[in-house]
Amino acid sequence: MLERLYRRRMPVDDVLSSETAKTLAQFTHEIRRPIGLVITRRGAVQDVLVGAGTEPSPTTLATFRASPRSLRGLRLIRSHLKEQPITQEDLTMLGLLRLDMVGTLAVTHKGEPGLLALAHLNPPSPQGQLYTLLKPTLVHQCPVSFETFIRELESDLQRQSVSHTMVQNQTAILVSASPKSKAEQEERLAELAELASSADLTVIDSLVQRTQSGHHRFQLGSGKLKDVLMQAMQKGADLLIFDQDLAPAQLRAIAEITDLTVIDRTQLILDIFAQRAHSREGKVQVELAQLRYLLPRLSGQGTSLSRLGGGIGSRGPGETKLETDRRRIRERIDYLEREIDGFARHQDQRRSRRVRQAFPVLSIVGYTNAGKSTLLNVLTNSQVSAAPRVFETLDTTSRRLRFPLGREVIITDTVGFIRDLPKDLLAAFRTTLDELRDADLLLHVVDAGAKDLDAHIAAVDTVLQSLTLDQLPRVLVFNKCDQLPNGQAETLCRRYGAIGVSALHPETLPPLIQHLEERLAALVPMDGISQKSAAPTITLASRP
Ligand SMILES: Nc1nc2c(ncn2[C@@H]2O[C@H](COP(=O)(O)OP(=O)(O)OP(=O)(O)O)[C@@H](O)[C@H]2O)c(=O)[nH]1
Ligand SMILES: [Mg+2]
Questions:
Q1: Mind listing the domains of the chain with CATH numbers?
Q2: Which of 27, 372, 374, 480 places its Cα 20 to 30 Å from the Cα of 400?
Q3: Atom of ligand 1 nearest to the CA of 417
Q4: Which pTM does this prediction carry?
């Protein structure tokens, strides 16, 4: 009997034809259970769902796809034995699945069709309602002429998206869900917000949830996730960013219930690197990291690749490459790895050349945005790009610096660190970071005004450890001391055994310069140059 429902065809302009309504009511009356019809725009019945709250089949959802700017091309009309408004469950389904419409058909006690209630989505707006409920009517009096109605609604959604992308940047909602305390999570979200704005995203909302430890299917409870997704849609957010890394299975589970772009912190960082990489070497390194990250997330995801539209979460490797199968991606990874080996060899030559120059090397390291490039600029009178955003620098720059007593050194500035630096990224940036191995002395620059100073210092320590560079002699430098109230900088420096400076105020630098000169004199005595097998006749090649 139910199978007969699949053979129903309706005129394209009817939300529900009177004939179908009659059959639906009759069957519902007989089996005493609600029946849902999933109907295509051509008026065919795609799925028949028995019971309240049942969802369209995964095959159907995979065949009919939606984007945040378009609808799925399916509507769901469910019968009910009692006259009842559209359930919250059905409205959630309307939003998450981006259905054309949802509706309920009341069935009278005689098994005849009663009132038909309908709801549809609205174009997103900050204050507006996500959906509109239409006044229930009898089926044959339904005022909606479906084909025209849906065409207009789709073009409204489209228009919204055009003005949206032209007028403003992409918007994001940040989510943190972990067993950590709310305060801790909020602190991390502040950093995530900085990362987001560094990627030119506008953060429109954020949400923190303390969860039980252990792995959730969705990282946070499914009810909560649905809430967040609905909010995101209502506010017209383009993407949802998790502070926690999402396991491939989690990403897949989330992708199954929404067409919204959902990414995690690692992906965001990779994306920023992809935006910023200019040198051939940097680009190769970022692409390699992105592909390594993507590979396990591709399995069985043939269809969902199409959700990687433009923008954040999809930059870099590019859609065409993403659409190639895993084997092709592995080949690409092999190729990039070989290319990076090539860089490494080349760099070895460069380095041995520099070592032969016999200048001691002083390398600036530190948390991103600590002021490393600014310090290099002021020390060496250079113009390396420095900006108030994270990951401004991705490549290594070397400059010569002559100390007051005449000693010359090479000073290098490189990519900044961050806590939980994605390990694929760390691996891919091996050649860039390998330059740190030449250092005779590391200059660890810390933003003295950072709220979570200790976390920043610890994060840098961790990265240095994982690069096995923690044995190198180090000087701790607290920068941006101008931002601290009088006296506080001194106290702080004393407590950490650091030297306080402000790269924006050159008059604060002499103590640092003097200290560096002394440390280097002790570490690399002038006659100690020979230890680096110097060939002093060769002069330094032009600046890199
Ligand atoms: N108030 C103040 N701001 C500073 C100081 N030093 C640097 N800044 C600012 O801090 C921001 C970041 O400086 P950068 O030199 O780009 O920092 P970085 O460590 O190289 O950052 P990445 O390359 O992104 O890792 C810039 O806007 C600088 O103007 C300082 O001593 N005081
Ligand atoms: Mg920099």
A1: 2-164 (no CATH), 171-326 (3.40.50.11060), 358-532 (3.40.50.300)
A2: 480
A3: 25
A4: 0.77
